[in-house]
UniProtKB/TrEMBL annotation:
It comes from Mesorhizobium tamadayense. It comes from the Bacteria. S-adenosyl-L-methionine binds at residues 245, 272, 292, 340. The active site is at 366 (nucleophile), 366. This is Class I SAM-dependent RNA methyltransferase. PANTHER family: 23S RRNA (URACIL(1939)-C(5))-METHYLTRANSFERASE RLMD, RNA M5U METHYLTRANSFERASE.
């Protein structure tokens, strides 16, 4: 049975929130000020119809919107959407008592996402390849995707056929597709164990279709062309399933902010360095010590540095910074530092940075809540917040990237 609701605000995941008997009700694909009917189940409801639409409601860019679970906010007018994302960062900082100007959101253009994770499963009607419906295990097959680079969309049929060739399980599995300078890099996870004949057929398909690489659960099955991405002037051959920023434009924006802030530093630490998106750019002006827990990523960074020219020295260290953060004594040899941890943030590492004498720090995060927590630690340790720049790397999703820049007067030793 449907119920009438008035939406008052958006929640942190982009759902409209309505006040009702028994508490708040979360209604996806609605906007503040709208009157809607929705079918309620406890604190969530499925939108049935919009009775009074917000003036900020716009036509979605994709036919799969509301079904596939990949986007939450295509119906939200662009400027208001970006203001909402900025406010997510503002409110997270405010919750930790952090004042300071938050810059306008750096926008993300459609058709720019270079790394997409598809879900796949063999069904009676054939191979399903797409995204999972929100709060469901149902895979919605897709024919278009306005967030992704055209090279990924153009390959959807080929990727679906490849998924069918590598599928050795009745369960759903994942296929990560990355656009590189060499072509599409396809990393499959949890598709089951392939027999020799199946491997041969899949390899021949990759060769025939001009894909750069196929890997399954980290094992390279075939690699006609080594997948390469560009970090500034340096070409990096990335390992299977390597983490990359979702869009090249966002990565360049973050790197520019970090690089400008650390431009005076002669010796820089790059923590959670990945394959070197910051380290290899910073090495144009500074000596860099890159610290990363993932061995293949660190090896790719080191190999790229050794084959590059015109860079200052880059050293690397494999280290789990969650279990063993760099101590403040180790950090004190650096003039600058950048850290870009996973969504969980870097609480223990931030405590060591806070105790250090490093004068210039750049904090990069895809989670405003953990960013605010880590910034609070740094501010309590004597750092001053100079700027916070939100970056809309994940278009039409509730996620927002941010770069925070901090300074601390150098203590005399």
């Amino acid at each position: 049975m449907s119920t009438r609701f008035t939406v008052t605000r958006l929640g942190s995941q982009g759902d409209g929130i309505a006040e009702a008997d028994g508490g708040e009700v979360f209604i996806p694909f609605t906007l503040p000020g709208e009157t809607v009917t929705a079918a309620r189940q406890k604190d969530r409801a499925t939108l049935m119809s919009v009775l009074e639409a917000s003036p900020l409601r716009v036509d979605p860019a994709c036919r799969h919107f509301t079904d596939c679970g990949g986007c939450a906010l295509q119906h939200f007018e662009a400027e208001a959407y970006r203001q909402w994302k900025r406010e997510r960062v503002v409110q997270a900082l405010k919750a930790k008592g952090i004042a300071g100007e938050v810059e306008a959101v750096v926008p993300c253009a459609p058709h720019t996402r270079r790394r997409v994770v598809f879900s796949a499963r063999r069904a009676e009607a054939g191979m399903l390849l797409g995204f999972v419906r929100a709060l469901s295990s149902e895979i919605i097959p897709i024919e278009e995707c306005p967030i992704s680079l055209p090279a990924i969309v153009a390959a959807l049929d080929r990727l679906r056929r490849l998924a069918d060739l590598v599928c050795a399980t009745p369960k759903a599995f994942h296929m990560t597709v990355t656009v590189t300078a060499s072509g599409l890099d396809v990393a499959v996870q949890d598709a089951g164990k392939l027999g020799e004949n199946q491997r041969r057929i899949a390899s021949n398909f990759v060769l025939a279709e001009g894909l750069a690489r196929l890997s399954i659960d980290g094992e390279v099955i075939v690699e006609p062309k080594k997948p390469v991405v560009q970090f500034g002037s340096v070409a990096v051959a990335v390992p299977p399933g390597a983490f990359l920023q979702a869009t090249e434009a966002a990565e360049q924006t973050m790197a520019a902010l970090v690089g400008q802030h650390l431009s005076r530093a002669k010796k820089v630490a790059d923590l959670f360095a990945g394959c070197g998106s910051f380290a290899l750019r910073l090495a144009a002006k500074s000596e860099v010590h890159a610290v990363e827990g993932d061995a293949p990523a660190l090896a790719a960074l080191d190999r790229a540095f050794r084959f590059a020219s015109g860079l200052k020295r880059v050293t690397s260290e494999r280290r789990d910074l969650f279990r063993r953060p760099l101590t403040f004594k180790e950090l004190n040899v650096f003039d600058g530092l950048v850290f870009d941890p996973p969504r969980a943030g870097a609480e223990d590492q931030s405590k060591q940075i806070a105790r250090s004498d490093v004068p210039l720090v750049a904090a990069v995060s895809c989670n405003p809540v953990t960013l605010a927590r880590d910034l609070r630690i740094l501010l309590d340790g004597g750092y001053q917040l100079k700027s916070v720049t939100p970056i809309d790397q994940f278009l039409w999703s509730p996620h927002v990237e941010a770069v925070a820049l901090l300074e601390k007067p150098r203590r005399r030793r």
